[in-house]
Every structure is written in C-alpha cells, then in structure tokens.
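Structural prep section.
Before we set up the soaks we want a predicted structure of the protein with aspartic acid in place, mainly to decide which crystallisation condition to try first. Input record follows.
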Amino acid sequence: MSTRQVVMITTGGTAASRTTDAGAVPVLSAADLVPKARPGVTVHPVELMSVDSSAMTLREQFSVVRSIAESFADPDVTGIVVTHGTDTLEETAFLADLFAADPRPVVFTGAQLPADHPESDGPANIAAAVDLAIDPASRGRGVLVAMGGRVLSARGVFKSSTTAAAAFDTVNADLPRPLVADAVPSGHPARVDLLSLYPGVSAGTIASAIEQRAAGIVLAATGSGNTHPDITAQVSLAAHRGIPVVVSTRVPYGFVKPTYGGGGGGVDLARAGAVFSPWLRAPQARVALIGLLSTGADRRSVVDFFAASSPG
Ligand code: ASP
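Run finished without errors. Recording the tokens verbatim:
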C-alpha cells in the first residue's frame, strides 16, 4: 500500500494554545500538533501563522486558501487538514470552499479546550480530521469541518456553542456549492461591511459604510429579512452607487426571502435593489461577497451566485 500524504496547515487557535497569566494564547508549533503516527500515513506540518482566529485579517484568510492551492500543486498529496481557531473558522473554511475546485479532501478542525487542559479536545479532533483527509469518501465533498465527532460541510456552517465539543451546526446540510473561481485572487481583497440591524438602528450606518468606501454591504436583518423603512432609502442609495447590498438575517435557522412590506420589509428591500441570501448567514454571505467582488464579479454574478446557493 502506498503512503497517503496529508499536509497539515496550522494557523493557531485554541488547539495550539496554552493557558498563561494573560489568557490562552497559541504557542504550540505545527510539529507539536502532528497526531500519533499511523501505518501508511505521513502528516507534513506547515506552520502558516499562529494567531487567535478572532484577530485574523482578510489577507491572512486568503493566505490560508492560497496555501491549500499550493499544497495541492503536489499530485502526491492525498488531502489537507487545516487547524484553525473556532471563532472565525466558518469564514475561512467557507472562503476555501468558494475556490475548492480540486476534489481532494480539505478538512478544517480546532478545539474548545486549550492544549494544556487535561480534557483538551484538540488531539482527537486533529486525528479525526486526518482520518477524513485520507478517506476516499471525502473526495468531492468540498471543504469539511470536523469537530467534536460531527462532520459538516463548510457551506452553511456556523459556530453554535462557545463551550460544547461539537462547536458547530449548519443552517442547511444540503446547500449546493457554486464556486466563485478556480484560481484564488492575488490582489487586495474587496472590503465588505457587515451591518447588524435592530430596533432603533441608525439609517446612517449604511451611509457611513458607503462613505468609508465599502465595495459591498451585508445586512444581518431581523426575521426573514426585514428592517425599519429608513434603512430602505439607504439601500437604494447604495444600489444607485453600484454597491451591492446583500440581505441575510440574524436568525440562525430557516429560509430568508422577501415576504413583508410596510416600507422596511423584505419586499421593500428587494425593490430598493438588495440581493437576498436565502441560506448563507451574514458572516458567510459577507465572505461570498468578498470572494465575488475580489474576482471582479458584477451585480448579475452576485445575484446568480446567491440564487445558485439555494437547494431545489
Ligand atoms: N479564540 C479562539 C480562536 O478562535 C477560540 C478557539 O479557537 O476555539 O482562535
């Protein structure tokens, strides 16, 4: 039997952290995280960065995706594991999935408990991720997230618990996987602002995103995609300036679609030019818009991408 080669890209997070007087910080090297040797499998550690994922920049997130593409340039690589902090894993894993044209497995994992905790979940999660990365059944499934015994597609995944070992859930396990492009863009990532909507929100929140030259805006609206009528005029202003506005929701589960009127309802937002994200929640809708705008997508492509992201 030939040896299966797994590249393990490490980025920091709790799996690589120890507890210090100043809080848990990533200090373990990539080599420290390599799981116990098993016959026929070689794990090659690549230490890309060592950061808390809540502090990760967009450039760093794109560098993870580039590192995956570079690793797959070697035809002998069977699969890839990425260790990542859980706080923003849903964003980086999804960004990788937007460019995942190679059928070989890519599995993101992390930990809830630091490496020096007696019950640290990192080693078991990494071992499970390596198993998935060498499993032929993982091929062609897109980027996967393995955590606490659960395996989920990166598309639709979100952090659902700050403490549970199975830290992630999915809004919909059957989301189609339209790609943004085969090649990862090398230029400046587009700036996309994510704005949360709530009773009493200032309409100026969108105006200031426009002033600060956001290339796109994502709204975490209330319910099925609704807000105050004052926001609708601002959406219209953004649309007239050619800035795409994507509507998602702050609700974790269910479909988002224009249903209500009244000036600030989803029907009004759609008429003002907003694009609806039926399933991808605001953090992943933002990542999709970044991927699209960073590869020069026009409004039609943005509309098509979100339409193609809905099952059925
Ligand atoms: N703050 C940590 C991080 O995202 C949390 C974790 O890894 O679970 O890097």
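Observations: The pocket of aspartic acid is lined by residues 13-14, 52-54, 85-87, 110, 112 (CB under 6 Å).
Flagged for discussion at group meeting.
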